[in-house]
Amino acid sequence: MNCYEAIDLMGDELDKQLAPELRAGFDEHLVECAACATYFDQLRATVESLQRIPRHPAAPQRRAELIAAFRREWKRPSRPSE
């Protein structure tokens, strides 16, 4: 397995969805490739950190305010009529 293949599988591994027939090659690559092992450790730490963030759904009013602010900020200028 090369680095590109291993990186493609990292998401599956983090989701505990890695196909059993790919397990040995994936594990072997991480043992042999320090760069991929480090990258995978960083991905795992990021996912674990994000999972610890409390999930509070935004109140509907706050959501509407954020959408309106986004639209004001990114509104395209009107095109003149042709």
Overview of the molecule:
This protein has four helices and no strands. It has helices at 3-14, 20-32, 34-52, 60-74. It is mostly helical. 72% of the residues lie in helices and 0% in strands.
Shape: elongated
Low-confidence stretches: none
Euclidean distance between termini CA atoms: 58 Å
Strand content: under 5%
The major beta sheet can be summarized as: none
- Structural category is mainly alpha
Helical segment count: 4
Provide the helix percentage.
over 70%
Average pLDDT for all residues: 87
Number of strands: 0
User: What value does the Rg take, in angstroms?
Assistant: 21 Å
Element-level helix/strand string: HHHH
